[in-house]
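pinging the channel bc i need a second pair of eyes. not urgent but kinda urgent?? the chain im working w is below, pasted from the shared doc
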Amino acid sequence: MVSVLITSWKEPKTIAKAIACVADTKYSGIPKDFQIIQVRPDDETLKAGLKEAKRLKLGDKFLQIRDPLKGKPFALELAFKKVKGEFCILTDGDVYFEKNAVKHLLVPFENKEVFGVSGRPKSADSKDNMMGYWGHLLADAADYRRRNVSEKKGNYYISGKSFFPMSGYIHAVRKDALKTDPGSLAEDAYLSYQIRNSGHEIAYAPNAVAYVKYPQTVRDYILQKSRSLGGYMHLKKLGVTKRDGQSRSFLLEAQHSFYALFIHPENLKQMWWALLMHPVRVYLWLVIFWRRVVLRQGMPKDGWERIESTK
């Protein structure tokens, strides 16, 4: 059995598609014995998800859990207790899977040492403007790095001496590995490090594709990334990075500037946009340092942060 956990907040326009692209067994490749758990704190997304579940006639295969606005880690902890499947796929309510994504995501689990599998996020945005191109660049850079730090095993890759954490947009773990921390700001990375610390491996299935809408304004971009990237600093405080060290930092990112500036761009306009992203990233890391290290900010009061332009 496979469980699918979808976290969502104020995403009534996208939750139906997120559910449908998983629940359609012919489309997603999910086994017929599955369970979908939707966790959300708001009524709008609750109603939209329930409406889609009824349309698809999911019955008892669909479960909703209300999060009392205590944050995504708390919501995940509630959902983990309801997981019935041997494997659990985690994704978001504003993400949709490509055909056979679930099928490809489950293949690496044939290796008993693999306890976590990351899929491949792709941008759903147009490349015809700067912010749209940044989304493609970030998604492709993550794919490039995951391939280069892992060992290829047929149609997927497996971590060895080093690894790159699973993507929060599309990843799967064995039920026994489901674990989070109430103060974690990067739940996908926390799971990844815990799996590695337990002596097991992370795999990467690039054919398991999820489409993501990235921030469309610089303000939203900084807001989203300051939380996700800042979460890696917090992981060090939690003591989960001892085996593999930090996988995201300003210095590590700087090492991949050549890819961003000279390998990924297809023309001079894209090269210029990539160049413009660099001072923004420098500013972003300064914001992260100020908020997480100097001010020691943690989870926002209501536990969630909504990035409007990604919806």
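so The domain at 2-310 is CATH 3.90.550.10 (Spore Coat Polysaccharide Biosynthesis Protein SpsA; Chain A). and The radius of gyration is 18 Å. — does that match what u expected or am i reading it wrong
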